[in-house]
Amino acid sequence: MVRSTNSTTSSKSSVFIALALAIGALYFGRQIFIPLALALVLSFLLTPLVTLLERGHLRRLPAVLVVLIFCFALTAGAGWEVAGQLLDITGHIRDYKENVEETIRSLRPPASGAFGQATATVEELNKELAAAPGQAAAAHEPNQANGSRPNRPLQVQVTTAPTNLVQDLHALLGPLAAPAETATIVVIFVAFMLIKREDLRNRLIRLGGQGQLTVMTQALDEASQRLGRYLLLQFLVNAGYGLVFGVGLYFIRVPHALLWGILSALMRLVPYVGTLIATAFPMAMALAVFPGWEHAALIFGLFVVLELIVANMIEPWLYGAHTGISSLAILVAAVFWSMLWGPVGLILSTPLTVCLMLVGRYVPHLSFLEVLLGDEPVLSPHELFYQRLLAMDQDEARNVADVQLRDKSLESLYENVLIPALRLAEEDRHTDILGERASEFVYQTTRELIEDVGDRVLRHDADEKADAGSSDRSNATLGPIDIVCLPARDEADELVGMMFTQLLRQAGYGATYLAIGAVDNMLDQVKEGGFKIAYVSALPPFAVGQARSLCKRLRASFPDLVIVVGLWEFAGGVPKAQERVGVSTANAVVTTLAEALLQIRTLPKLGAADIWEKPEMVKKNGDNIDRRETDFPRSAAAIGNRK
Fold first, then answer.
1. CB contact at 8 A, 591 and 567
2. CA 126 centroid distance within chain
3. Residues 6+ apart with CB under 8 A from 326
4. CA-CA 20 to 30 A from 267: which of 32, 75, 134, 562?
């Protein structure tokens, strides 16, 4: 056990050391990894276009060249137009000086107000404090009458050496050399990735190992489908957003609407704050060109309307299966990648984080990445329900049940949430992890929830039947109260018996349950009730022995009683459950509520006890089941297996 713990700790340490080394490699090797990441994202984006051309009977190399030339022409044309508009803005900055000064003056508070007077007082104090050091320095200056020369600033004339054309071009193109170099490398990488994409795919699959073909294939298929679809739709959405924003600015009469439209489309790649930053530039332009705040307010209103429509309607409708990343993870990833790779990392943060999340999904040692980055629930409904009960949060536990009941049936709520949660509580209680106070809270809250939910569902069903004018009970084959549920060991077994009783009543059967107590008292209640069928409710793994003992007492006291044992959530299924209980102890064994209800539906109208003696045809949902064997436990196992 100690060796296993040490190996697990060592494995986790190795994973974190590898992650630290990977982060260091990404930072120090960013000059290589940034073009590679950009090329990977662009290849996912451009692959559908290349595939479309190939379907038009164009070979791979010409198709890739056509796509790259088209993208280069589109980028060059947009870049030329944007550069021209930027130069035009810089050439007219002085023309906007008067409007800018007027706007700044409008922001100042009136001098007659309290705030204005306070501001004026502070400005006067600042002037006096600034003048005091100058007066003190003048007092210490030597008297000019003594013949001393006053301190005066010396005039310095700076002359520059003449430059030639090569030096001027180097000074002009110097800042553009690094981006041009990166762009060239990216284009080369994209071309080779598009041309050799099958070869690269096969090499990645081979790196995963011979025994990982299925996993690697699933990972690459999901990555290509999810990333390709997301990037393509994001490009279309951003382009449409920039087009609508630019057209809106054109009608608002903001200069250079094309520039601001392209800027807004590009800045939407930056999560959350990109469009807000892109909107600030045309608002500043409107304040500089037009007097007042009317045009700036119209631009901000256009931004709000577009964001509400695109973010809340268009993107969810188009994206469908989203990226699978939580909102917090997107924000943290944006900060992480921007600190690692700068502005390029900020743009690539979402695609790179999707890749990391998929790696965590298919690599067991990195599964924590999917937990940290993904938006899928990390706790199943029954785990969340039990966890909120452990935290003494009754309201949120009820909310979990209400959400489940809103979309599913009462049987599904009991089968998939409450019974598994009770089993977790039983395991913790018997291993002394769950204290007495916490166990009482778990059981009492679950009991109240069962009573409340069951009453609501039964009342709702009764109202629907009353509205439909139907008074007969569907599937009612027994007497008024012919079925009783007995707990085998403790309160958890009793609670499951309550659930099953409610489901029987919902189906139209007469049923009741007994509270946990002494075996003799429960036997007396069974005798007084005159029941025909007894369900012994037992929640494994600690109630099997008590269930077997109770069944023997029931068989000895009531030979004609039909006894069915419910070993809820038993891992081995019906055959293994029958082996644990014993063939001669009970007439049938079930492991789920659905199987227990199925046993009731298969009973004929002749009588509850006759079925165990007569080899006849039993109806199951309209299908005939040939019962050539009189040993019903085998038939119950067959029914459970068929289900």
1. yes
2. 55
3. 373, 374, 375
4. 32
